[in-house]
Amino acid sequence: AIDSNALIVFVRDIDVASGSGEGFEVHNQIQVPQSAIFINKAATNSFYGTSLLELLKEENINHIVIGGCKTEHCIDTAVRTATVQGFDVTLIKNGHSTTDSNVLSAEQIIAHHNKTLHGHYNVDHFSMVRDIEEDLFQPTHDQYRD
């Protein structure tokens, strides 16, 4: 993202760690550029009750790259909502995470979502799942359009 000069937005869930400290802040292994924008949310949906949609439209963004956690909640919702809101989405295949549930392991949940969300579409816009080693900021969506 930094090398591509992309707009970098971190969306944080205020329900995590009561909205402060470790768990809420961006992991210390992630390089956060000075230009990064932080948006705090109270719902699973990153677009609900936040300025995210307005920001992306103001910046004329039409493709977003998504990574983070929790796969089956925030990530799934962000990908699906973004396509409805008019964005092509690249989900980082090995860039989202979760924890085991009572039914599935974290590994199974991630694999399921990678399979389900690859090619998820809402008529005009859709999501693709790509490996972190690829040039994620060069969207490949157009080669799949009619």
The strands making up the biggest β-sheet line up spatially as: 3-4-6-5
Structural class: alpha/beta
The Cα radius of gyration reads 15 Å
Question: What's the pLDDT, averaged over the residues?
Answer: 93
Distance between the termini: 28 Å
Q: What is the tally of helical segments?
A: 3
Give the beta-strand count: 6
CATH architecture: 3-Layer(aba) Sandwich
The structural domain count equals 1
- Going by CATH, the homologous superfamily would be Isochorismatase-like
Q: What are the low-pLDDT stretches, counting only 5+ consecutive residues below 50?
A: none
**Element string (H = helix, E = strand):** EEHEHEHEE
| Highest-level CATH class | Alpha Beta
- Within the CATH hierarchy, at the fold level, what is the topology? Rossmann fold
Q: How much helicity do the residues have?
A: 10-25%
Description:
It is a single chain. The protein is α/β, with parallel strands linked by helices and 146 residues long. The chain has one domain (9-144): Isochorismatase-like (Rossmann fold, 3-Layer(aba) Sandwich), CATH 3.40.50. Helix content is 23%, strand content 24%. The chain is built from three helices and six strands; from the N terminus they run ββαβαβαββ. The protein has helices at 52-58, 71-84, 106-117, and strands at residues 9-13, 37-41, 63-69, 88-97, 121-122, 125-130. The strands form two sheets. A four-stranded mixed beta sheet has the order 3-4-6-5, with helices on one face. Strands 1-2 form a two-stranded parallel ribbon. α2 links the parallel β3 and β4 (88-97). α2 (71-84) packs parallel to α3. The model has no long low-confidence stretch (mean pLDDT 93). Residues 20-100 form the Isochorismatase-like domain. This is Isochorismatase family protein. GO terms for molecular function: hydrolase activity. It comes from Bacillus cereus. Keywords: Hydrolase.
